[in-house]
């Protein structure tokens, strides 16, 4: 019997996971990607002699589906994972307090470092520990928790504006790509409950040692080929046809399919989804977008002594030493990741230099004597959807009302924010739903 034909549209992490899962289960799979490469929102380009990622990507130890995909692609050795969560938090004037875990079980694993977090008065540190206990107990499945903002809830618990800015936003801005005042309480609670308040090791941070295309897109092309997937790049899909049978139209060609997995960003999905799919397309568009800007700064000498650091009372949100991936001595190539970056999106490179180079000098003593060899900016205007209150109910699951048509993407209802883990989970969920439906149809 001819195996069923599954067409996966979109070659980001969701599409890659979906295609590999279907091929491993014996389906005939075609993957169609509009751009000339795989990897979707995770890729690298060459800028001024450096391999530069479109944006710094990190994951946590609890990102099991993402890490399993890395294993399937054979690239686990291309990432580093902290043995213990350890984030130096720097402020102008040379102060450093570390948020790190000890060897005790959660949530006690973080209590000593929160109590030593000197950017807040002691009373506020104690209060933050109490609030964390309440956050752990919060029922994020209650629809009301998606209707309120995290900052509103924190304020109700007695958290000050200073605590929200200096403590709670450190994690929320980086993971939800919106500040607490705009973030859905349900989604913020998910991040804290899963990352910091559940398993002690869950929030150990990992990142790539190589440019992102060498971690995802390129190895995925090889793995897909070995799995028997036919991958077509520069193959943007124009329409999904539903007249009598499912088919996908790309570059003038029509591909008949037993199942289609649509793994494109939410705005593109809204444009491609046929009405019969029964998905609220305006709801998808209402998921909105939130930008991320990255600064890629090459110094003539080491300036950053840590592999990563967060900043307080400075526009430098998170900094990463990416020297290794560029083949340079440690501390010279610093990437600054600016999430929820609306205020930076319209700025020119010169304007950003004017703000951020003095900020480096104020934060990192070694930067004062260093010469900047290059300063590049990457800007992703639609990096993620905006995880604001009310977005939970706008995220559909993998199934649609149209038999044979399934949805994947970090924006679908995975329970996770718009992350690599969410994308991979969504791809697996859509593939499993498609395989199940194909089995039933036999
Ligand atoms: C700058 C930046 C920093 C980030 N930082 C982190 C981080 O630190 N940690 C983390 O976990 N996540 C991070 N993310 C989020 C993460 O990258 C995404 O959530 C994830 O990669 C999305 O994967 P996806 O497969 O759902 O979608 P995408 O990667 O967007 O893939 C969709 C694919 O569909 C293709 N496509 C679109 N239309 C069509 C069409 N008509 N036909 C065919 N193909 C089409 C696109 O070209 C694209 O390749 C970051 C994102 C950005 C942009």
| Alpha carbon gyration radius | 22 Å
Low-confidence runs of at least 5 consecutive residues: none
Give the class-level CATH name of the largest domain.
Alpha Beta
What's the structural domain tally?
Answer: 3
Outline type: globular
Give a written overview of the molecule:
The chain has 442 residues and is α/β, with parallel strands linked by helices. It has three domains: 163 residues, FAD/NAD(P)-binding domain, CATH 3.50.50; 129 residues, Alpha-Beta Complex (Polyamine Oxidase, Chain A, domain 2); 100 residues. 33% of the residues lie in helices and 23% in strands. It contains 14 helices and 20 strands. The protein has a seven-stranded mixed β-sheet. It has a five-stranded parallel β-sheet with strand order 10-2-1-14-20, with helices on one face. A three-stranded antiparallel β-sheet has the order 5-9-6, with no helix packed on it. β11 and β12 form a beta hairpin. α1 runs parallel beside α14. The longest helix has 22 residues. The protein is globular and about 70 Å long. The N and C termini lie close together (11 Å). The mean pLDDT is 96. The structure holds flavin-adenine dinucleotide. Flavin-adenine dinucleotide (FAD) binds next to α1, β5, β19 and α14.
């Amino acid at each position: 019997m001819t195996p069923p034909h599954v067409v996966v549209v979109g070659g980001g992490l969701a599409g890659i996971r979906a295609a590999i899962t279907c091929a491993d289960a014996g389906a005939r799979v075609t993957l169609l990607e509009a751009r000339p490469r795989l990897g979707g929102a995770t890729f690298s380009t060459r800028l001024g002699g450096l391999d530069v990622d479109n944006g710094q990507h990190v994951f946590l130890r609890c990102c099991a589906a993402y890490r399993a995909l890395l294993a399937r692609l054979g690239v686990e050795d291309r990432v580093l994972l902290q043995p213990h969560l350890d984030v130096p938090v720097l402020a102008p004037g040379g102060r450093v307090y570390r948020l790190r875990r000890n060897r005790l079980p959660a949530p006690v694993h973080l209590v000593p470092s929160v109590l030593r977090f000197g950017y807040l008065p002691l009373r506020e540190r104690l209060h933050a520990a109490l609030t964390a206990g309440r956050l752990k107990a919060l029922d994020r499945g209650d629809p009301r928790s998606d209707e309120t903002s995290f900052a509103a809830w924190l304020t109700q618990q007695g958290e000050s504006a200073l605590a929200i800015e200096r403590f709670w936003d450190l994690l929320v801005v980086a993971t939800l790509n919106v500040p607490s005042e705009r973030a859905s309480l349900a989604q913020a609670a998910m991040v804290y409950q899963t990352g910091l308040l559940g398993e002690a090791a869950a929030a150990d941070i990992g990142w790539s040692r190589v440019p992102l295309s060498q971690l995802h897109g390129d190895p995925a092309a090889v793995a897909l080929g070995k799995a028997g997937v036919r991958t077509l790049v520069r193959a943007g899909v124009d329409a999904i046809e539903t007249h009598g049978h499912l088919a996908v139209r790309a570059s003038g060609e029509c591909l008949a399919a037993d199942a289609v997995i649509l793994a494109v960003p939410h705005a593109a999905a809204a444009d491609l989804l046929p009405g019969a799919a029964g998905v609220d397309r305006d709801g998808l568009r209402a998921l909105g977008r939130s930008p991320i800007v990255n600064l890629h700064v090459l110094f003539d000498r080491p300036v950053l002594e840590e592999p990563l650091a967060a900043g307080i009372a400075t526009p430098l949100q998170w900094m990463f030493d990416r020297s290794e991936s560029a083949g340079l001595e440690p501390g010279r190539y610093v990437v600054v990741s600016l999430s929820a970056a609306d205020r930076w999106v319209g700025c020119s490179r010169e304007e950003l230099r004017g703000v951020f180079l003095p900020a480096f000098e104020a934060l990192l003593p070694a930067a004062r004597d260093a010469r900047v060899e290059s300063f590049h900016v990457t800007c992703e205007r639609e990096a993620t959807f905006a995880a604001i209150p009310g977005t939970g109910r706008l995220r559909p699951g993998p199934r649609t009302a149209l038999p044979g048509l399934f949805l994947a993407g970090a924006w679908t209802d995975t329970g996770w924010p718009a992350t690599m883990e969410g994308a991979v989970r969504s791809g697996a969920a859509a593939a499993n739903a498609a395989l199940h439906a194909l089995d039933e149809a036999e």
